[in-house]
Amino acid sequence: MAIVRSIPDIGTKGIEISFILSDWLLIGGQYILDLQHNLETLSVTIDLYDPSDDLIMAGRTKILNTNNIRLFTSYDPDCRFEGKAIIIGL
Known about the structure:
Oligomer: single chain
Low-confidence stretches: none
Shape: globular
Largest sheet: 5 strands, antiparallel
Helix content: under 10%
Strand content: over 45%
Strand order of the largest sheet: 1-2-9-5-6
Number of helices: 0
C-alpha cells in the first residue's frame, strides 16, 4: 500500500508517495501503479526514486485526472521497482 506524506517545504503543492513491489498490478501484459496525489491539477512534475534515492524512470507515465497518475512498466522482463514518487503541482 502506498504511503503518502506531504512535503513541508513545498506546502500543499507537493506530495511524496512511497510504494513497494506488491503495489504494482499486472494488467494486460504490463505492470501499472496508480498514485493518488490530490493536488487538483493536470500540471504536475513527477520524480521517481529508488530506495537509495537514485532518480529513476518508469516505462511510461500517464496523468489520469487532476488527482491521479499511472506508472507503467514492463512485465517481461519484470521492471517493477520500490521507491517513492515526488509529485509537484505547477
